[in-house]
Amino acid sequence: MSDSHFKDPYNIFYFLGFILALLIPTLPATLTWLRVFNGYAGF
Q1: 3-state DSSP helix/strand/coil percent for the chain, to nearest 5?
Q2: Where are the bilayer-spanning segments (predicted)?
């Protein structure tokens, strides 16, 4: 069996999927905090 054909893409996609799963829920919160800080920074 070919291990090299299975290892690389599997690990890379798993890693990218994990990072995306962590980042997607935080995007609205990050944008909200940026708006809040930008709104209060200008006084």
Answers
A1: 85, 0, 15
A2: 12-34
Distances (CA, A) of 42 to 9, 18, 30: 47, 37, 19
Alpha-carbon gap, residue 30 to 16, rounded angstroms: 20
> How many Å apart are CA 40 and CA 2, to the nearest integer?
57
pTM: 0.41
Reduced to 3 states (helix: H, G, I; strand: E, B; else coil), residue 7 is helix
CA distance 41 to 36: 8
